[in-house]
Amino acid sequence: MGQMIKWKEYLVRINPNDSTKMQFSADNGTNWNEMYVTNIGGGQILDLTDNGDEILATTSKGLFYTKDRGYNWNKRG
Fold this sequence. Notes:
Elements: E1 4-7, E2 10-14, E3 22-25, E4 33-35, E5 45-50, E6 55-59, E7 62-66, E8 74-76
Antiparallel strand pairs: 1-2, 2-3, 3-4, 5-6, 6-7, 7-8
């Protein structure tokens, strides 16, 4: 697990200035865009994992996953 992962054609990271937000880059980190994480539970994002067709985010509110670059998050377990 790590603070930044490669997922499909994107780099995805926990925002270094605000751990309640995530960012993605489609150009190998030259430019970063905010990822939609409003429905991730409002907690601090602690870790990210590339789980094949989904991103796993361990947060202070539990484990969440997305399969659509962060537009929809669901709580696991």
